[in-house]
Amino acid sequence: MPMFQQLFQAKACLCPAGSALAIWLGRIAGADCVHAEPSLPVREFSADFNDIKGPRSEVWRECVGAGRANEGLRADWQRQLKLVQDEIGFRQIRFHGLLHDDMGVYSEAKDGKVSNQEVFRKIQPATAAAKVQIKLTHLPKGNYHAQFFCVGFEKNDAYTAYLKLGAPRQLTRDQVSRLKASASGAPEMENDVEVDESGNRETSLAIRANDMWLVKMSRK
């Protein structure tokens, strides 16, 4: 009998018959002293998390753990992160490998030249949009023209348009015109709004990963 099997069998026989440890060790070693698993009563627990009876620590909201930073570049990982945020509303996230080789921050070619463009030469589509509520405060009462500008994937994004052209070394006039049109700086949307005595104005925007928005309120 192999030595590790003898060891586990000996430990299993020292445990009370039918105990959880004896059953576990017996399964590993095939010990003869374990004959049958006892039938355990089923215990069910239910709790209403919103029915608070007293002080409740929410330390678990402070930080969640993730794996490598590189995983955060995947769309499926970002969807899972959003699900966790929607469910528990964590405040911080911890991960490692921010400057690892697989992030493409720094690399060396065989000829010794340094390049950090491995990631940036690839088209990186934005992940699905999420609704964000924006509240402007301390605005003087009156009528305004609101403009919403966005810079992000294929929104005022000449670089992605350049990559989709095949990243040519020399641009034609037509290509230059197309790149200018892809980053015209025009607002994504605009409308007229009225601000009452409260001085507050709220609106919602669908913001994707890596989007940057500028909200401009012009008094009429």
Tell me the distance between the termini: 91 Å
Name the beta content range. Answer: 15-25%
- H and E order: HHEHEEEEEHHEEE
Number of strands: 9
CATH architecture of one domain: Sandwich
For CATH, the homologous superfamily of one domain is named as Glycosyl hydrolase domain, family 39
Mean pLDDT: 80
Task: Describe the largest sheet.
Answer: 3 strands, antiparallel
Give a short synopsis of this structure.
The protein has 220 residues and is α+β, with helices and mostly antiparallel strands. The protein contains five helices and nine strands.
How would you portray this structure in words?
The chain is α+β, with helices and mostly antiparallel strands and 220 residues long. Among the domains are: 1-35, no CATH class; 130-219, Immunoglobulin-like. It contains five helices and nine strands, in the order H-H-E-H-E-E-E-E-E-H-H-E-E-E. The strands form four sheets. The protein has a three-stranded antiparallel sheet, with no helix packed on it. Strands 1-2 form a two-stranded parallel sheet. Helix 1 runs antiparallel to helix 2 and helix 4 (158-164) packs across helix 5 (173-182). The longest helix has 14 residues, at 75-88. The chain starts with a helix and ends with a strand. Residues 1-34 have low confidence and may be disordered.
SSE inventory with pairings:
Layout: H1 3-14, H2 20-29, E1 63-68, H3 75-88, E2 92-96, E3 107-108, E4 114-115, E5 130-136, E6 142-151, H4 158-164, H5 173-182, E7 189-195, E8 201-207, E9 212-219
Parallel strand pairs: 1-2
Antiparallel strand pairs: 3-4, 5-8, 6-7, 6-9
Helix pairs in contact: 1-2, 4-5
